[in-house]
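Figure caption, in words: inputs first, then the predicted bound structure.
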Amino acid sequence: NKIAVELTTAPKSKPDNGQLSFGKYFTDHMFILDYDAGKGWHDPRIVPYQPIPLDPAAKVFHYGQTVFEGMKAYKTPEGPVLLFRPYKNLQRLNRSNARLSIPHIDEGLVIEALKQLIQIDKDWIPDEQGTSLYIRPFVIATQATLGVQPSEQYMFMIILSPVGSYYAEGINPVNIYVESEYVRAVTGGVGNAKTGGNYAAGLKAQQEATEKGYSQVLWLDGIHRKYIEEVGSMNVFFKVGDKVITPALNGSILEGVTRDSVIRLLKHWKVDVEERTISIDELVDAYRNGQLQEAFGTGTAAVISPIGELNWQGDKLTLNGGKTGELSARVYDFMTGLQRGLIEDPFGWIEKL
Ligand code: COI
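Bound structure (2-OXO-4-methylpentanoic acid present):
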């Protein structure tokens, strides 16, 4: 399974750090791996970044049989490129694959492809604080037939994008609208798989929240419309008294790698952290009692995104005076310091390239 490499003859000019924002620019190369029933995954190759020809009947366009991942690479002053828990993402990729009836992909091959691709495009990794190289592996069903069955052909690809912060607010708090009409996912559905449909399902609520002046929504569960699930496209944490609470994984919540890392970090710091069911009523009560001190989202793209205000049915709950809380800042500084190689890694999460 040797990876073929075709280098570009027309390298693109690179954006300045200030222009980056999120996912606007792509590097010079990409990785492709094909799948055909009977043949399995085959022809791993790195090629110049380019559009891909697809038949209009390709199943991904019609039935959304697709999954993706998100990871980041960081450049260190001494040279090596650092990856954060890449195996954890690739295991999740295969769990998402299994849920979407997409064949398992060899994780060792993907790591090898990732390493070679990043090595080739390493001059694209921005090195300023708050910037990184975002890695987007994804699979699409390419068989050109309209029957609703699992595809017999797929493409797995990896593209790379130099990025700045995900939210325009950066590490400053975002205001969140608690969504009581639309839901993101239900247990038994695909909420715990990283698949495009979950994000498409969230757009309408996000759009309406934006119109009301909010950056994102807080998702409640699909059955009772009562229990907290996620915030925007991130997992969510609350500091209540001296405890930190986060919704327990229930089948409709994505198993965030940053979520898992933050839980383990808090435990390492001897902070009391609970994964359990949290109702919006409990949060509002905690707020009224002065116990709800901080809230933040966690995800690969933003790492930590503090919440400044929660709008629950017109009631505005201002958290920590609308400023980044002490714990949120401490978690952000540690996570980003670790990812950039500025802090000793007590967990064995950093992979050097
Ligand atoms: C995240 O990293 O938080 C994500 O969910 C990826 C996002 C760009 C869709």
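Residues 184 and 202 are 6 Å apart (CA to CA).
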